[in-house]
């Protein structure tokens, strides 16, 4: 018991330290750019009120940096809030609903993600009349996390989304032809703030998405299997249990 408490304490300290580090970077950028803009606009308010074209362009760049870093910090804070709720033992409230409209919504939104690859979606009719017990918003977020990762780490080629059903589960498979990763790194990718290597570290993100995905899966009694190879791509297989409380399953 003491050993477990010590481990939890150390993990919590590490999490707080990592979170502080991640928040410090956008705050520093925002503060620096805001201070720069303040100096420029103070100068503009003094005679002869001349506006230099270069300073205008630099001001616009500074404002863009502030907007980008603010959005990044907002995403990070939202992710931290989700994980804090998970750590506090919050359980996801579950309703029974048909899964097909949820998946269709995710696919439609995924098509709007920045991408330079072909997005192939297999026929979703296999999901008709399949129901699940869960939270619609969280399940959309779950699928979106893995699709977003597939696009972020695939510069050319294909991202493919497939659906299937078994006697007890709904299976979603997301495959890409991206940069992939070594198999020995896969167990660590669900750790908070973990970035697999330097090439993946250049890709924008909070490093918390997969930790949130794991919590959502756990809450829905689902599981994930990942197969990946450097420079050959990644395949993610998500399984969620079919709801059988009523005669919905066919």
UniProtKB/TrEMBL annotation:
Mind listing the UniProt keywords for this protein, alphabetically? Answer: ATP-binding, Kinase, Nucleotide-binding, Phosphoprotein, Transferase, Two-component regulatory system
State if Nucleotide-binding is listed as a keyword: yes
In this entry, which stretches build a coiled coil? none
Q: Which domain of life is it from?
A: Bacteria
Reaction(s) catalysed (UniProt annotation)? ATP + protein L-histidine = ADP + protein N-phospho-L-histidine
Name the Gene Ontology molecular function terms of this record.
kinase activity
Among SUPFAM superfamilies, the record links this protein to: ATPase domain of HSP90 chaperone/DNA topoisomerase II/histidine kinase, Homodimeric domain of signal transducing histidine kinase
> Recorded E.C. number(s)?
2.7.13.3
Q: Which residues form the Histidine kinase domain?
A: 18-244
Q: Which PROSITE patterns match?
A: HIS_KIN (PS50109)
Q: Which InterPro entries does the protein's record reference? A: HATPase_C_sf, HATPase_dom, His_kinase_dom, HisK_dim/P_dom, HisK_dim/P_sf, Sensor_HK_Regulatory, Sig_transdc_His_kin-like_C
- What general EC class does the enzyme of this chain belong to? transferase
Classification via PANTHER family: HISTIDINE KINASE 1, TWO-COMPONENT HISTIDINE KINASE
Q: What is this protein called?
A: histidine kinase
Q: Read off the lineage from the record.
A: Bacteria, Bacillati, Bacillota, Bacilli, Bacillales
């Amino acid at each position: 018991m003491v050993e477990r408490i010590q481990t939890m304490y150390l993990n919590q300290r590490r999490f707080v330290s990592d979170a502080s580090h991640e928040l410090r970077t956008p705050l520093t950028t925002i503060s620096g750019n805001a201070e720069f803009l303040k100096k420029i606009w103070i100068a503009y308010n003094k005679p002869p009120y001349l506006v230099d074209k270069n300073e205008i362009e630099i001001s616009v760049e500074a404002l863009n940096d502030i907007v980008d870093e603010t959005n990044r910090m907002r995403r990070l804070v939202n992710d931290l809030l989700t994980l804090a709720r998970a750590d506090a033992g919050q359980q996801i409230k579950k309703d029974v609903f048909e899964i097909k409209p949820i998946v269709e919504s995710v696919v439609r939104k995924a098509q709007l993600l920045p991408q330079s690859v072909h997005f192939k979606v297999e026929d979703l009719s296999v999901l008709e009349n399949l129901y699940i017990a869960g939270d619609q918003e969280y399940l959309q977020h779950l699928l979106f996390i893995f699709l977003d990762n597939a696009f972020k780490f695939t510069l050319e080629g294909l991202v493919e989304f497939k659906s299937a059903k078994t006697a007890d589960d709904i299976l979603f498979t997301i495959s890409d032809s991206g940069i992939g990763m070594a198999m020995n790194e896969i167990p660590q990718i669900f750790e908070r703030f973990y970035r697999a290597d330097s090439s993946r570290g250049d890709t924008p993100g909070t490093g918390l998405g997969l930790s949130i995905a794991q919590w959502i899966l756990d809450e829905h009694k689902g599981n994930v299997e990942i197969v990946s190879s450097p420079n050959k791509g990644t395949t993610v297989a998500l399984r969620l249990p079919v709801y059988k409380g009523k005669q919905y399953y066919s």
